[in-house]
Amino acid sequence: AQQPDPAITELPDWSRYNGEGVDARPYGSPSEFESHVVRRNVEWLTADTVSSVNFTPLHELDGIITPNGLCFERHHSGIAEIDPGQHRLMINGLVETPLVFTMEDLMRFPRENRVYFLECAANSGMEWRGAQLNGCQYTHGMIHNVQYTGVPLRYILQEAGLKSSAAWILPEGADAAAMTRSIPLEKALDDCMVAFKMNGEALRPEQGYPVRLVVPGWEGNMWVKWLRRIEVGDKPWHHREETSKYTDLFPSGKARRFTWEMDAKSVITNPSPQAPIAHGPGRTIITGIAWSGRGTIPRVDVTLDGGKNWHQARMSGPSFNKSMHRFYYEFDWDGSPLLLQSRAHDSTGYVQPTKEALREIRGENSIYHNNGIQTWYVNEKGVVENVEVS
Ligand code: MTE
Ligand code: CO
Fold it and tell me: Among 160, 190, 291, 347, which one is most buried in terms of CB atoms within 10 A?
């Protein structure tokens, strides 16, 4: 280089003076230069921020783990700030012995560590009728993926003793919404957990501190936060969140009764509208995430031309059941416009459908369970826009 680079030739303060000492940040937070990396909401989506949602900044993350402070939040009555010493978990209904547990009681069951994604059924819901929101944070950011530490729910139910007629459970939250969902006992005894840690630290208040239900692979609404009671019954309760909400209205006017499992889905996180290609033509990296409520993601395909030619992406990182997966596709960009898409294949052989294919069956009344292929248009300047191709 002819011109001296001041980033090399001039000494910045951080190289001249000592920095803060070890105890300046007893519970650390990110660099001030990362202050743009935040959850964001879409103001017009909801009437207020108390019964609302914000979105994980997927375009700023890599790997498969979502940092706790960036996990999207969905509250029906705001964040319950619970004193764990005052918190109780009650098991009642069709059990031999109704029981009440303190947090200390829960900690004395054998615990397990599992990485799972949580996706709200409404994720991508705004995109059913066409491309709408400009950013994968908004189109796909109602998802997070963390390692939970908790107690398998079956240990707790077995302690209370299930009556022979027991067939369903109704978990209930301690927030003002007292949110409830009916869950079949088979699932409860299979892989549900009562979790109190995420990524090694206590659950954040936003995520249900001190204890939440984990319902692997199933829609986020069932993962009751601030869990205070589990009633055991012999049939589903058909409460609000499983009738007027979280049901899929078909073109015929009939609604699908329960849609629990989250189908395989993927999205390219970079480039994307909030993360344009700034470097011009040449070596370019495409990356994104994929997940399935039915297993793992052995394969993701990427297209640069709206689906005419597909290329197999490179998977990197741990491949856990019902967890997020990371893919990369490296290529030499010639600077011509691109129509980027990704397509997930899950371990059952299911392939992520196009939005068109979904609409043929589901119509356009739907809000929930949109797992269609996302398209990003990249122009010759590297600017990215949310579009649809047909
Ligand atoms: N549990 C309670 N008690 N109250 C709530 O409002 N929201 C549900 C679910 N559990 C909710 C709840 C919904 S719709 C979703 S998508 C997830 O929590 C969101 O979990 P998160 O806030 O950890 O992202
Ligand atoms: Co939800």
Answer: 291
Q: Is 267 in the pocket of ligand 1 (CB under 6 A)?
A: no
Number of neighbours of residue 45 by Cβ within 10 angstroms: 15
| Residue 383 neighbours by CB distance under 10 Å | 14
Q: For the chain, how many residues are written?
A: 390
Task: For residue 375, give its domain range.
Answer: 265-387
Q: What is the pLDDT along the chain (390 residues), one digit of tens a residue?
A: 689 999 999 999 999 999 999 999 999 999 999 999 999 999 999 989 999 999 999 999 999 999 999 999 999 999 999 999 999 999 999 999 999 999 999 999 999 999 999 999 999 999 999 999 999 999 999 999 999 999 999 999 999 999 999 999 999 999 999 999 999 999 999 999 999 999 999 999 999 999 999 999 999 999 999 999 999 999 999 998 899 888 888 888 888 889 999 999 999 999 999 999 999 999 999 999 999 999 999 999 999 999 999 999 999 999 999 999 999 999 999 999 999 999 999 999 999 999 999 999 999 888 899 999 999 999 999 999 999 997
**CA 132 – CA 126 distance, rounded (Å):** 7
The closest ligand to the CA of 209 turns out to be 1
Q: Relative to the alpha carbon of 146, which ligand is closest?
A: 1
Give the residues across from 169 on adjacent strands: 183, 232
Find out whether 338 and 385 touch, Cβ atoms under 8 Å.
no
DSSP characters over 181-212: --EEHHHHHHT-EEEEEETTEEPPGGGTTT-E
Question: CA 54, CA 76: separation in Å to the nearest integer?
Answer: 12
Residue 64 counted as domain residue: no
Closest approach atom of ligand 1 to CA 241:
14
Residues 104 and 217 in one domain: yes
Q: Cα angle vertex 357, ends 354, 360, to 5°?
A: 150
